[in-house]
User: Fold these one by one.
Assistant:
Number 1:
Amino acid sequence: MDYKKYIAQKIKVVGVSEEEIYSSIAVPPDTSMGDYALPCFKFAKVLRSSPVSIAQKLAQEIAADDVIAKITAVNGYLNFAINRGSFVADTLKTIEEQGARYGSSDMGAGKTICIDYSSVNIAKPFHIGHLSTTVLGSSLYKIFSFLGYNVVGINHLGDYGTQFGKLICAYKHWGNKEDVDRRGIFAVNELYVRFNSEATEDMEREAREYFRLIESGDKEANELFEWFKSLTLKYVDKIYERLDVKFDSYNGERFYTDKMQPVIDELKAKNLLKESDGASIVDLEEYGMPPCLILRSDGASLYATRDLAAAYYRKKTYDFDKCLYVVAYQQNLHFKQIFKVLELLGNDWAKDMVHVAYGMVSLEDGAMSTRNGRVVWLEDVIDKCVEKAYAVLQEKNPDLEDKADIAEKVGVGAVIFGALYNSKIKDIVFSYDKVLSFDGETGVYCQYTCARARSVLEKAGAFVAAYPAGYEAEEQEFEVVKALSRFPAIVKDAAEKYEPSIIARYAVDLSQKFNKFYFDCKILAADDGVRELRLCITRATLQTLENSLALLGIKVPEKM
């Protein structure tokens, strides 16, 4: 049962919708005040009365029943105490019935969401700066799929630009096929770094010519490019598999080269394209933005040109209800310009384009640059976390079987959780010790809580679910169940705000409440009836934590 909805249906305020009342109902920080509360301050203007009077009047109008045990008015708040016995039974039964689907819904049925994330740059290994876009986009993919949406994951490959002419030039001068075949993308990246530090003017001209050859369809130039591309995708696919990331489309910048002209023609037809110092722009000054550059003075296209073409293609191909771009906040202006140009072109769906901005990730020694070679590869970060996880497991539980597999799940989970725990817009300084803590606000802590709950259930053996009639749940029990009941709303909130951290923080909160319950309340040694109820709470917690972590892309080991 949705208790908030049940309560909202009981409250009648003239001039205020049930939906507005529902969204206003909150959980009080002090549970002695009640289980749910409605602040009446926002109704004062509509009803021309004080919040205190409104709360008192509503308290008199609403009768207690089998669900609502008590209604009180305190300082402008309408507080509700619910029948704990029925609430606990109802919540646990719902989780038992729904299992891995608990928290899901069909709210997205018939709707499509495109999510552009990760965006591999061909011939460049993933560094830690790619972590956020990859795991944030992947988590949003899982969350929206869980809510019934048709989700299209798009990896907008960075596979167009003069850098590929530079790469071919570098390979021609210094490359070795055997070395590239052996070391793959890392050998290719070294050639790119070397070009940027050692290239002569003649080589720069040569690189521009190689890029022209790629564009004109030259066989050798394109074979080299496709080779570099295949090496890149082979490399990143291994990382994606470890991070539980998937895509439905790998259409990158190059895919849109023959789809830009119709957009340019439409801009011209609607008198939006203007000349400025030889370049073609869309003037956005009246909207408080610098001009959006569409074509350089030499006629070359830019990111904006290709992104506009991609937007049209995605709308035509997928007819999306929302199109999300999971890209760092440094591109805020770029996407504001793109969305505004689409709007000026008369597309009402421009309002459905969303830039999901995020902060930067770095290690303690700061930022990185592929060009000068100062990078921290994401693969190395994952490997180091897995190694450290193995060492911690060896110390805590030397007899644990399948330690390598468990360490992989713990280490990879620590990396993902570390990137998703804080609000997406915050910059993150990645710390191995923090993300691998068994006691902190970490993925490891949540995984360990799952292992603890599973251990209790294994020791209990088979049992029949029981919800003792008239049983007044103890505070620790009720706090866990109340947290469990919030999960569907948490998932919906995370989707509406494009914020997986809401689920990550919920997982930590639920873990903390369960561990308090575990230490304060006897489970296996409890009296009959109460024992089975507490085992039901344990099983429901395990299921809900597994569901939460799955939406983040984190696997749960059987033991730890």
Number 2:
Amino acid sequence: MTREQTPLDALGEQWLDTLLDLQPELHVHLGRPGREGEYADLSPDGHQQLLDAGAAVLRQARELRPQDDVDVVTQAELVRTLELAADQHALGLWQRDLNVIASPVQDLRDVFDLVPTETEDDWSAVARRLENLPGAMAGYVESLRAGVRAGNPPALRQVREVAAQAGKLVGSRTFFTDLADQGRAAGVPSRLAAALDAGAVGAAEAYSGLVQVLLDEVAPHAPEEDGVGRDIYAVASRGFIGSTIDLDETYAWGVEELGRMVAEQEAVAQEVLPGATVAEAIAHLEQDPARRLHGTDALQAWMQDVSDRAVEELGRTHFDIPERMRRLECRIAPTQEGGIYYTGPSEDFSRPGRMWWSVPEGETEFDTWRELTTVYHEGVPGHHLQIGLATHHSDLLNGWRRTIWNSGHGEGWALYAERLMADLGYLDDPADRLGMLDGQRMRAARVVLDLGVHLGLEKPPSAGLGTGPWSGEDAFAFMPQHVNMSDAFVRFEVNRYLGWPGQAPSYKVGQRLWEDLRDDWVAVHGDDLRTFHRDALRLGTAGMATIREVLLP
């Protein structure tokens, strides 16, 4: 039965319409037609307009009365996210929005990965987006300059790293010129081909201008310290986790959790190779040709096969997976920055959910034992199940609710899903379990590193880095102790943590909150995890405090 729209649903839809108007790229992410080729206003005026619009909706959200549990979540999330946005704006986070993975520098380019390119109209929209990119970049630069004037620039390390990233989009042959060539190869008319060429040149010039601004205007004023301090970190953490946590207690827990992960991984290493250390077990596995893939084509095919089997088997046994969710595409990303990520389906599922692997330049060998758990994390029962179900439940969740993303909920669920797959027997091979623990250990180490550096906390003796407060340089020495990845991967990951405070711990902290919620739910309702998972995911993404309030009133 379709649920009738309530006043809070209507307010959620109104807020979504406002976001679609002020942030046109959201049309692309949702697969909605309209505003093709446009960007959000990233200038100070644009940020103020978004803040004012949110304040108006916040006033209405506080006044309405929830009519059911769905409304309870909608109201709580409207209030939470809009209050958070006001706090973030007051701290000037929009003035220092620069990091190596998730800032406008990446977003302005990455949206091209999702735009359709099947028809001439599609390519016309691509040309308009290329034409509009310099204007969007100019607004962003204006906000960075406002941060410099206010004494609120990003850290110097992020400025230099992002300048190097942006520099890869500058020159006569770039992602943008390759995109224009794809349009020509698709047979677009000569006039449109010329527009694509001109847009590609303009986009590359915009990135060239950004590099100059970063190095000449921002870098001289950027602090060398990577840590952002407790005030910014508390707000950032609240946003990523969806609830307020005790930062010092969480740091202490992170140190203990890392110790537990190390001990568990050392025990499993003995199963892989009796008498071996973790490093020796890993070296042994890396010499096993049966567990190694050669080239990105083989990686993509393996990812797709593992994903397809998980969808088919879990859809029969442990989860209700609607038919239109059973298509999940695994792709190699066009970037080479490192990282694996998921993009959700369009609202009508005409564009399926996709798992992307951004393979660093020069990497050609991949270990299946290390990455099997990652496919479960990004796919089913991880992000694809979670995000796909939220998109699917249009009969239950208003449009805005279906677009919400919260890292503690989402990434916490994905780590929870990895452990669940181990519990279900999918990681019984000690090598595969060692790979899962490798990831879990890394996520625990990130809790310690991230809180330690950004809050300037004392390094624990177990870190082996001496005494005194954490620094950014300590992070680069610490992470290689707890991950078995390439130097390029470690560099990218640590730079990500240093520039995106609070995000990395949200994975492991979110997992902790999910596991605590599950255990408390089972104590009340019994050991029926299929029902727990169904009821929890039907709520869509929300802050973990909100999810707990609804499932355990």
Number 3:
Amino acid sequence: MEGGILGEAVDLSVPDAELSPGALSRRGVLRGAGLLGAGLSAFGAAAGASPAAAAGAPAGDRRGTRYQWLAGDHHIHTQYSPDGMYRVSDQVRAAGQYGLDWMVITDHGGETHSRIGVEKTNPDVREARQDNPDMLVFQGLEWNIPAAEHGTVFVAPGPHEVSVLQQFEQGYDGVVQRASADEALAVAGLTFLARQVSDGRTPDALMLANHPARNGIDSPHEIRGWRDAPGRIAIGMEGAPGHQAAGIPTDSLGPGSARGYYGNSPRADSFAGYPLESYRTWGGFDWMTSTVGGLWDSLLAEGLPWWVTANSDSHSNYGDWSVNPTGNDRNATGPDGRVFEVDGLYSDPVYGGQIQTGRGDFWPGYYSRTHVGVARGGYRQVMSAMRDGRVWVDHGGLVDGVDVRVRALSATSRESTLGGSLRVRQGDDVEVSITVALASGPNYATFRPELARVDLVLGQVTGAVTDRDVFTTPSTRVVESFDTTGVRARGGTATFTHTVRDVGGPFYVRFRGTDGKRSQVGIYGASIDPQGPALDVEGDADPWEDLWFYTNPVFVVPEGRTRGSR
């Protein structure tokens, strides 16, 4: 089932056209016998059921399993957004130039976009796919989540991608529906997407919450509600928002704003429990992610999946020469006669005569990257890996690669990596290792980053919470920090290990790394996080002088003690 012709034949994420002749023939036999589809999927689910499912993540791999890591960006705007300007082709070309393998076009949802925008964007997306065969170009949109912030929603390519996105936006967008306080409508929208997948109208659909702490309106119970909605459509959130250039000081020819445009204060619809520091980024990362023992960790401590990503949120980019000819006036007529509110897009960008330094965005791939581990490339494979949490993120090319492995020392034939769940015997010793490929060359700011430290964060899985607005978990802390200064002299990679002794209950581990230029004691004290990211200062936050990477977690689930174990 796991390899060879039969493995190819029953893997429905692989379309018929991509199968070998032998696998295509075998699939036809299975399909004709009624053994391919729901029945076979049900068999696979039953066969795979195990205590590891308590962690809501895939079971461990065989030792030595390796993945191809594809860099991407799931939050990108074009001239089809009311505050955008670039052509789809501009963003796709830039993403390829800056090393990405996949990307999602996510123009803002709203009345004009839901009426004509989705349909008009699709030919540009399909043309970009044809012209850039090495780039996976997804079509999606930025959802105005009812009663909350924005979110990326995207689907796998297929004959119904336009209609599915259009029906979703028309029926469940908070702006279109004028549903500014309807939390139930958000869950209903995710349920709608799950039904499109189960009904076969789209191969897959995913949602990620964008800039979740920016305005304080994504409450903990709403995030849990999205996570728990049917079909596992909502899989995570932006661990680091876009707009990373916004904090460059004005005396360095920057916008002098807040990094990520996180310069806000509580408002009437903000969740009252969030502290004031949650409205700022920390080392460029959202407070929900950057705080050890904070909201992200409180979600993971339930033993359920919720992953983090990073992206550009590119609208108009720092250092670019081009401008929107109408200055983002939705009712102005462009050089070719286009009016945004009438036509659903702006006229093409034009040369502006000077470098634009007041903008807060970078091109896709220029600074932020989301790395997804796949066994083989493809649209559905990327989406499946994202759902599985096989994801790590970085800023500024801090490192070239990350490989995390968790295994029990009593049974080393199996191991788990990011997003996975490893079953071990109660009382086992568990080895956690990370191998980091150090930056081999200059980043797009033309210097080679130097990794200074890698931190291992460990948290106990304590189960479901009674208060769904809780956003702390006291059992999570940094358990070891590895000094990486000077490791370059020993080669291009560095491996660090930590052993968890005598495992008695379920837990998870995750890593982060830094260039060490800005750190401070974490919000909950030095015993929890002695050297966490520092609060970004509004108007003085050069992103190139504060680089981090974060990995998603690996869960460890002990089973009953066996005779002879400690």
Number 4:
Amino acid sequence: MATLGSFIAYICIMKNIRNFCVIAHIDHGKSTLSDRLLEFTKTISERDMQNQALDDMDIERERGITIKSHAIQLYYNHSDGEQYTFNLIDTPGHVDFSYEVSRSIAACEGALLLVDASQGIQAQTISNLYLAIENDLEIIPVLNKVDMESAMIEEVSDQVIDLIGCEKEDIVLASGKTGIGIQDIMNAIVDRVPAPTGDISVPLEAMIFDSVFNAYRGVIAYFRILNGTLKKGEQVLFMNAGNEYTADEIGILQIGQVPKKELRAGDVGYIITGIKVSKEVKVGDTITNAINPAKEAIKGFEDVKPMVFAGIFPIDNDDFEDLRDSLEKLQLNDASLVFEPESSAALGFGFRCGFLGMLHLEIIQERLSREFNQEVITTIPNVTYYAKTKKAGSEKFLVNTPVDLPDPSILDFVEEPYIEAQIITKPDYIGSIMKLCMDKRGILSKQIYLTPTRVELTFEMPLAEIVFDFYDRLKSISRGYASFDYTPLNFRQSNLVKLDLLLNGEAVDALSALVHRTKAETFGRRICKRLRELLPRQQFKIAIQASIGAKVVARETISALRKDVTAKCYGGDISRKRKLLEKQKKGKKKMRQIGNVEVPQKAFIQVLKLDD
């Protein structure tokens, strides 16, 4: 038990701690603003400073987006003469990484709500704001990019006031690029974000909000201590996993990891216990003292809900176990990735993976290639359906892949997931966006003018319709002005059919898809045409067909490569040339009967980009 003197001393320290995150829509300047905060507090020296300092993956820098949450500790000397400790968590802005945002928010007391002064409030801004409000965070609205000529400071300030009900003087005007308003942000964090509450005299309660894998040290878990103290060398218990470990090293998160002997309530830090198996650490788990444990685990942490599913298979089946290890290590670093083993007649053994969206799928595929040297084949993404057969007493069951769908003769009905899609745009593009959404079987449920130049459209749409190209097409028709966010709604009955892709009469189950009957032929034609462009020519003719059951709805043909067997004939009787050509024709017929069509990895990836 802590003595009264140490308890009072720590209360004085804890009142100078501030835990906050930065939330915003994608491309509103979170990473740039975080860079200025690091510079202002001299957390990073000028020599080591680089753009997107907290984004440590190459793919984040190349794309200019944040994929992972990043925690770092800053020290700020306030005008009242006291030093404050800031634990900052920079969060992603894309809708596909909202799970990262939810974990960051759970570890904070305050949030900087960043809004681009030149773009105004967008869909993900609202979504992230609701997450923060649900967790009772203190919201500090910040207008970023106020130095730009296109900044609409008055108009966007009114939008923020309408959204969160604050006063105009509560909004901080800033520029992550030039450093305008950084001092005001620091003062607002000190004055408005509450200090963490916690009792160091009770058993340890720490929540894991992230984890990474280190090849030499094993799993490193990042946590926030809500109550109690954690000392180096203590025996700790991971409550949900039920495993005990020794705290070999604990410390705080700066640009590097800084070891400490003790951490207390309110602190954000890391723990290394020598865990080598990634499954043993679960994001959201509670760390407590093994000898004097807490009564119950910390509640209120949600499990991830994947929205899009796709099969990931190794090119060589001998790499199956290596792919499993790679996915386990990725899952440790990205808790929103879920996977389970599956097999395919065409591709062998692989994994069925769940993702939060198409960008998430693309990022995982890219990370497998870069970080683990795993070249994989990805099947056509789909969503989870419910199906029911006509057999008496049969129950609804999950259909995860098109292969699982029962034969049409015994199928009673199929239910597909619907979402509520929220689109914020300029009035000029309402007609085009409505047409796009209705083409995707969307139903307009709400239309609200937020301001004279900003309208919010809400549609009820099948999730499967937004999986492929919806987001890209939305950005194209709105010239980049429309923003998009969605939440799951329910399951509804639909007239869905299984579309099979056949190569020379052989079905390729990796390219099968469940589509609405009214769109099956169009979709089939597009995929056949796409495959004709992507598949390499063989020594024999290749027939590409799309079929619903026994009915072929689309066909393309790739003509055979032909060696010039008559090249050695110089003049002479034409019958010699004919004889050679007939012999070649018979050989090609035989080759077509026994030849297999190999589908290259590039084709599986590119066939998804139907509108390129």
